[in-house]
Specification:
Layout (H helix, E strand, L loop, with lengths): L12 E2 L2 E2 H14 L8 H13 L19 H16 L8 H14 L8
Antiparallel strand pairs: 1-2
Length: 118
């Protein structure tokens, strides 16, 4: 079953989180970083990660892979891994490190690899 399917009586999932939990995390981060002087590369990366995971972006934030709709857990995890590679290997980096860190942290939280959300 993909992460976007609904099991009888359960809310749709995005990775290991409920869709509403991811929506709340996205909204909270959007509010915290609403003013231009409060936006950082980390928050921009995390917001991009949230939006992609929710199926609102045409391409994955790190690899640029095209995914129609909400990506499944395997696809989300692959993007976390790609972000980790870019964070570890400076020659692999195509965007600012802090932006990649934000994407990584948001997607890692969505995938259940960490408890603290960005």
């Amino acid at each position: 079953m993909s992460t976007q399917q609904t099991v009888r009586g359960e809310e749709r999932r995005v990775g290991t989180r409920s869709r509403s939990e991811v929506e709340r995390a996205r909204h909270a981060l959007e509010v915290r970083s609403a003013a231009p002087d409060r936006q950082t590369q980390v928050s921009r990366g995390a917001l991009t990660g949230y939006l992609w995971a929710l199926g609102r972006a045409e391409a994955a934030p790190v690899t640029g892979a095209a995914v129609a709709g909400t990506p499944d857990l395997r696809t989300l995890t692959a993007e976390v891994d790609a972000a980790a590679v870019q964070l570890e290997d400076q020659t692999q980096r195509t965007v600012p490190r802090d932006y990649t860190r934000g994407v990584h942290d948001a997607l890692a939280w969505i995938c259940g690899h960490r408890d603290d959300r960005p």
